[in-house]
Amino acid sequence: MKKSFLVASIALLSTSLAFSAHARNLKLAHAMPLDHPVHKSMTWFADEITDRTKLRVRVYPNATLGSEEASLQMLQNGTLAFTKVGGGLVSSFSEQYNVLSLPFLYKDEDDSKRILRSEIGQGILESSENDGFIGLAFLASGSRGFYSNTKIQTPDDLKGLKIRVQNSPIDIDTMKSLGASPVPISSTEVYSALQQGVVDGAENNIPTYFANRHYEVARYYSEDHHSMIPDILAVSTEVWNRLSVEDQATIKQISVEVLDVQDKYWDEYVAQSRADIITAGGEIVEADVQAFQDRVQPVYQKFVQNNPQLANLLESMQNY
């Protein structure tokens, strides 16, 4: 009897120790390369948690553990603690994030930070708790512009052009409202699609345009700033609920501090990318932003019609 009790006690202790070790060692995955601002800021985030708690966070870059979609799924089942994902992708996992994909939602990048880092943004981040993950921070990822082998400075320049977009209803509606023909294809196929004429242009932020060498097949980058979709630093709800209140508070504080770190690295990255694009033979052109804004109102009307439950959130963001 005593022997059985001893064996059971040892087994229970071993299980407890294994769980404790698992709880202390956490994984953070993202899909960006080592020289990307996201990797630098996520490494800082992980190091700060390691230094200021008894937790240990290991960073897995370059989609080592899978795509952004796979990472979100791992957050939902608790096999991954943290990840960085694009806001457009998160919208397919949790409802309130959909509003972030609307075109010209902010006056400029400073305005986007002001709104997203307010109680409104915090509400969006927390809204996904029951979907298996909690947003910790909105990370700056710049604004998106069109690029093609012809200059796109007004919506009329888009008329009839086949433009690659993400497979998102809002992105597709936005292109249609601007007179373009949207072509949803994978991001990994954009270069060859431009090269072979499958599409006439695409849209993204300046660093992505440069990093993917799209300037080689689409010389002109237009700064129309039609979209400012942030990246999201998220934590698994299951993992979060296993942490102590003290560790949760520390991680929340670090999540606030990492915003300035990401901003610094991102601004440097954009400046360097702009210079490198010019050196490589690309050209950055100004666009008539107001003309683009005037064309996208039907997108908002359709969004509210299809998502009446998000109308108040959208209104609060527009009036903040």
Quickly list its features.
single chain; about 325 residues; alpha/beta; D-Maltodextrin-Binding Protein, domain 2; 2 domains; five-stranded mixed beta sheet; four-stranded mixed beta sheet; 11 strands; about 50% helix; globular; DctP_fam; C4-dicarboxylate ABC transporter substrate-binding protein; TRAP_DctP
Summarize the structure.
By secondary structure, the protein is an alpha/beta fold.
Provide an overview of this structure:
With 320 residues, the protein is of the alpha/beta class. It has 2 domains: 149 residues, 3-Layer(aba) Sandwich (D-Maltodextrin-Binding Protein, domain 2); 128 residues, Bacterial extracellular solute-binding protein, family 7 (D-Maltodextrin-Binding Protein, domain 2). The chain has 14 helices and 11 strands. Strand 1, helix 2 and strand 2 form a beta-alpha-beta unit. Helix 7 packs antiparallel against helix 13. The longest helix is centred in the last third of the chain and has 35 residues. The termini are far apart. It holds the Pfam family DctP.
